[in-house]
Write a structure and sequence with these properties.
The protein has one domain (3-134): 3-Layer(aba) Sandwich (Rossmann fold). The chain is 46% helix and 18% strand. It has six helices and five strands; from the N terminus they run H-E-H-E-H-E-H-E-H-E-H. Helix 3 (49-59) packs across helix 4 (73-86).
Length: 138
């Protein structure tokens, strides 16, 4: 990691997409990111993929962490990816997914461009280190 990257603040959007109303995990990761020195924007509940994309573009985030427990990851995550591509923001954004994602769906999400998927029990330290090592340099 370059000194410049260590000195800049990584901007993260922690997003709850769709009808999933469980946000405890999103709050936990948002707090962990903040405590690690990241700038954190939290989307709030029940956001559409377009609202997530709009927030990411307007806030010029480096990282989007989508928290999803509803099982709609195969529908909603691709819509976020498509929206980011429409704004030419996909290549410059590290996209993470956290929550309940069955093993059989993970390869497809990664192929679409999800950098990593963190399931229940993933350590905060591992997640933070992944972001530090992989956030795009600007």
């Amino acid at each position: 990691m370059s000194t410049e990257q260590e000195q800049r603040t990584i901007r993260c959007l922690v997003a709850k997409v769709g009808l999933d109303g469980h946000d405890r995990g999103a709050h936990v990761i948002a707090r962990a990111f903040r405590d690690a020195g990241f700038e954190v924007i939290y989307s709030g509940l029940h956001k559409s993929p377009d609202e997530i994309v709009q927030a990411a573009v307007q806030e010029d985030v480096d990282v989007i962490g989508i928290s999803i427990l509803s099982g709609a990851h195969n529908t909603l995550v691709p819509k976020v990816i498509d929206g980011l591509k429409e704004y030419d923001a996909f290549e410059d954004t590290l996209l993470l997914v956290g929550g309940i994602v069955p093993e059989e769906d993970r390869a497809d999400l990664r192929e679409m461009g999800v950098a990593e998927i963190f399931g229940p029990g993933a350590s905060m330290e591992e997640t933070i280190e992944f972001v530090r090592e992989n956030a795009p340099e600007r």
